[in-house]
Specification:
This protein has about 950 residues and is mainly β. The protein is built from nine helices and 64 strands. It is elongated, with a radius of gyration of 33 Å.
């Protein structure tokens, strides 16, 4: 929706009772990126340069078809002397000012403009040019506007700043550099005598303090503060006198046992401020806040309300592909919900303060926020830096979610600004530096970036609290959850572990209005997200969700003596598990010949946890029915006190052998034929013909009575180790026909057994000694023949050796896609990859369907060509072949592990290659078609609709 009218006045009269007055707001722009107002516009360079046109405000002019695109790291490519497109945009807009505003203080407010912004009202400068892109600024224009008449605003916005330190801090950065008025613009009117702003400090013991700032205090004035809960019930109030010369008063109230704010319990209150003169109300305002005490106990940890808290966080840019950094409250809400869905409790506002609405939502839903002054790798100069610190802190100071201020990023720290924060923050939050160089620890907190497992252990020895503000760089499908379980465990167990913030939340892809709307992530620079540009969930999203689950369950499989007791650890900081709810289900999975995927729920029951306090261990007791072992699997779902699912765990009840046996029976129509020629042995049964090469022992060809060929062949080939063919023989074994092959080297033997029902059994054994990225066998099959796959195993997302979490046992089905994390088309889950704990997989191809199964546990299936991280060479390396059946798979590293020989092991033991020292034997079953159940006897037959075709 757009505001296609001359001017819109929105009056925010929160307390419009009697004769009291409040701040009145009139928007000159729209309120967000979806609700805009049309202004006149002219740009100096790039597209549509030199011609007056119109533009939607708020917006970035690049996204409206003007100017040119720049990515901040272009200076790296072209050198420090590289000149960005220093475009200037000129805006004009006419507006009315209400006649009854005469005599009031009228200000014009910009929530954000990139970057140097000069404002004129009716041809007169509103004030000094504002420098800095991410901050609210305002001008008093009471003497420049015409009341009850038409006015004109003219704004010149320079994409690059005249202050080089602003460019260094904001523009020469690893993100898209955009221009324009991208946040709302509005007028605000107040009485001449009014409260300008407040700074609140509300402690966990119920002590409330506020610094109240005034302008033009009238005679016989007093300020009344009334604290009210969410039900509008007063829990305390106070009144103090204010002198005519006062510009600041401190007021305090002692309340009794307020509900405390934490990320787990985001309890909020309102402080109502009323300014009176001669007992008459002349101005009212209110602020939302929370009672909580934040302490940084040096040499110990970060405490919230007396409890040590470890941050499970992510870095977040303000971003939406179509509109860049111009967003709205709905998008902010979506991001907070997604972050909390990953069981995170914290977010870092990298590398600048976010929209006000984002902080409001963090307050109400519960996230610890690291609010950051811009300064990507260079800092603001002190004069402009002081102004911007003031603007940031005054706007954000009363948000209980903000637990620490960050004074810039990765060397962008002006230490002369550290003491500026406390000038405006009554609660005197700690200031830290988000850094990537040793020696930048400050106030007892080390935030060093991208340390590996070994160096993390060293830093956690002290002397500082280690809360890393960036770690596990998530370019493409690397980092993020890969290695997270290892590194998070170090932080959880260490006294000085403060947790950290994964880099980062979303791929920063911009919709290019100059290239037919393609999404551009600037190659390897910006696809760093756990989710895609439109918040498409990657595999890491769900793995993080499991790793960070505050209901911590380590049990990976049901023990042989399992009777329903599940050991659990409470990794909440403030929540007893008795306040959570739990439900278990006994389920049966759909089979290959069913026309659907998923499972059937056979039994459901709820349960409650006993008194399991934060940071303690206990058990969940499931009252299982006597026949529980007759079902395929057991699932357990945990739900938090707010009704949100925490995680669902699933364990096999029936073994892989039992699952596979249930699908192997197929109606027998003929006996097995064995034929040979000079090149091959042919095994044929139930219309299926299999050809084994006499010179290699490998599958060379396939056919059945409905089809000439199926292009699944050239296997099994060892993916690690060597195999030297020795000999081959064929013989009968009962009603089956066998072709057996002997080898020297790593492969001991292959044994092909054709059953009368058409199932082909493959037994093989290999021996390896050492460390291996992958182990198992591969076959060839053309990727362009694949339509989709259906399987019983973990899914629907792919895994890596160091990112096995976040997948669930089920019968899954997936259509083929060629999506690549970080590059697009951002269709998830990816079809291609490593998939874990597979019982069977049905391949749907242009040649028909075929089925592969195993009766042994822990088999991985690799599907086709893919990679985890793009770079000079895509990484990690793949096994040979197209489809692999594996006993070991590789780990994936991070973008920052590329420079050390792509060693994911630097991020923890789970990233090390698999150590193999004993022989491995596995059995695979193949059915080149799809068996189908007969109703009469529950046997199976080859259905005509699933025949193989050319």
């Amino acid at each position: 929706m757009r505001f296609n009218i001359f001017c819109i006045a929105i009056y925010l009269l929160s307390f419009s009772t009697g004769i009291s007055q409040t701040k009145e707001i009139q928007y000159l722009s729209g309120i967000d990126n979806e609700n805009t107002v049309t202004w006149e516009f002219w740009v100096s360079g790039g597209r549509k340069a030199g011609k007056w046109s119109t533009i939607e405000v708020p917006s970035h002019w690049e996204q409206q078809g003007f100017g040119s695109y720049n990515y901040g790291r272009d200076y790296v490519t072209y050198g420090k002397n590289f000149k960005f497109n220093d475009e200037k945009g000129l805006y004009k807009h006419k507006f009315l000012v209400p006649e009854d505003w005469q005599g009031k203080k009228v200000s014009i407010v910009f929530e954000g403009s990139m970057t140097d912004t000069e404002v004129k009202i009716n041809g007169k400068l509103a004030g000094d040019i504002h420098q800095g892109s991410f901050y609210r600024f305002k001008y008093d224009i009471s003497d420049k506007v015409k009341y009850g008449a038409e006015n004109q605003i003219e704004v010149q916005v320079s994409k690059m700043s005249a202050d080089n330190s602003v460019n260094n801090a904001e523009r020469l950065a690893d993100y898209w550099i955009l221009g324009g008025i991208y946040r709302p613009v509005y007028l605000e009117a107040t009485p001449q005598s009014h409260i300008t702003w407040t700074a609140i400090d509300a402690k966990a013991d119920g002590t409330f303090q506020a610094n109240v700032y005034f302008e033009n205090v009238a005679k016989n004035a007093e300020i009344v503060v009334d604290i009210r809960d969410q039900n509008n019930t007063s829990i305390g109030s106070s009144t103090i006198k204010v002198g005519e010369k006062d510009s600041l008063k401190n007021i305090s109230i002692k309340t009794k046992k307020p509900l405390l704010w934490t990320a787990e319990t985001p309890n909020l209150y309102y402080a109502h401020f009323t300014l009176k003169s001669n007992k008459k109300e002349i101005y009212k305002t209110k602020e939302r806040f929370g009672f909580r005490t934040i302490e940084v106990r040096q040499g110990d940890g970060i405490y919230v309300n007396g409890t040590k808290v470890k941050m499970k966080g992510v870095n977040r840019h303000v971003w939406w592909p179509e509109t860049g950094r111009s967003v709205n409250a709905r998008l902010d809400l979506m991001d907070v919900k997604l972050i909390k869905e990953m069981n995170m409790n914290a977010v870092r506002c990298s590398h600048y303060p976010p929209d006000k609405s984002f902080l409001d939502i963090c307050d109400s839903l519960g996230l610890y926020v690291l609010d950051e002054l811009a300064g990507w790798q260079q800092a603001y100069a002190t004069p402009v830096g002081k102004k911007l610190v003031r603007e940031m802190v005054i706007r954000d100071v009363n948000h209980p979610s903000i637990f620490i201020w960050s004074n810039g990023n990765e060397g962008g720290h002006n230490k002369e600004l550290v003491d500026e924060y406390r000038k405006y923050d009554l609660s005197d939050r700690v200031v830290m530096h988000a850094h990537h160089r040793p020696g930048n620890a400050i106030n007892g907190i080390d935030g060093n970036h991208y340390e590996n497992y070994s160096s993390t252990q060293k830093i956690l020895e002290g002397p500082n609290i280690y809360m890393t503000t960036e770690f596990l760089h998530a370019q493409d499908d690397g980092g993020a959850a890969a290695g997270l379980a290892d590194i998070w465990e170090l932080h959880w167990q260490a006294k000085l572990g403060g947790g950290g913030f994964i880099w980062d939340f979303a791929d920063e892809g911009i919709v290019r209005t100059d290239f037919n709307g393609i999404i551009d992530v600037n190659k390897v620079n910006a696809p760093d997200g756990v989710v895609g540009p439109h918040r498409e969930k990657e595999g890491s999203f769900y793995a993080i969700r499991e790793i960070f689950s505050p209901v911590h369950i380590k049990m990976k499989s049901l023990p042989a003596d399992f009777t329903g007791t599940v050991p659990v650890e409470n990794r909440y900081h403030h929540t007893n598990l008795s306040n959570c709810s739990f439900e278990y289900q006994l389920i049966d999975y759909k089979k290959p010949y069913d026309n659907e995927s998923g499972f059937s729920v056979k039994h459901t029951a709820s349960l409650t946890a006993d008194d399991i306090k934060p940071h303690t261990k206990g058990s969940l007791v499931l009252a299982l029915p006597t026949d529980w072992k007759n079902y395929d699997a057991l699932s357990l779902k945990a739900v938090d006190p707010h009704g949100q699912e925490i995680y669902t765990w699933t364990w096999r009840v029936k073994s892989n052998e039992a699952i596979t046996t249930s699908i192997l029976a197929v109606k027998t129509s003929t006996s097995v034929e064995l034929k040979e020629d000079s090149a091959t042995y042919m095994l044929k049964a139930n219309g299926i013909s299999v050809f084994i090469d006499k010179q290699t022992g490998l599958l060379s060809d396939l056919a059945n009575e409905y089809s000439m060929k199926l292009a699944f062949n050239n296997g099994p080939v060892l993916v690690s180790g060597d195999a030297v063919f020795k000999g081959i023989k064929a013989y009968q074994e009962g009603e089956n026909q066998v072709v057996e092959c002997d080898f020297d080297g790593s492969l001991d033997f292959l044994k092909w057994t054709m059953h009368p029902n058409g199932w082909l059994k493959l037994d093989y054994k290999y021996s390896l000694k050492g460390d291996y990225a992958f182990a198992g066998v591969s076959f060839s099959y053309p990727e362009n023949y694949i339509i989709g796959a259906k399987w019983l195993g973990n899914g629907p997302y792919r895994v890596w050796k160091n990112r096995l979490q976040g997948v669930t046992l089920n019968t899954w089905e997936s259509m083929y896609n060629d999506s690549k994390a970080g590059i697009g088309p951002w269709v998830f889950p990816e079809f291609k990859g490593y998939f874990s704990d597979i019982s069977w997989m049905e391949f749907n191809t242009t040649q028909g369907k075929f089925l592969v199964a195993t009766d042994q546990p822990d088999m991985y299936v690799r599907l086709f060509e893919f990679y985890g991280i793009s770079g000079p060479k895509n990484y990690p390396d793949l096994p040979t072949g197209d489809v692999s059946f594996l006993d070991a798979i590789p780990a994936v590293g991070t973008k920052l592990a590329m420079g050390i020989n792509n060693r994911p092991g630097v991020n923890g033991p789970s990233g090390d290659p698999t150590k193999i020292n004993t022989p491995i034997a596995r059995t695979l079953y193949f059915y080149f078609g799809i068996p189908k159940a007969e109703k009469e006897n529950n046997q199976f037959e080859m259905p005509k609709e699933n025949i193989l075709t050319d």
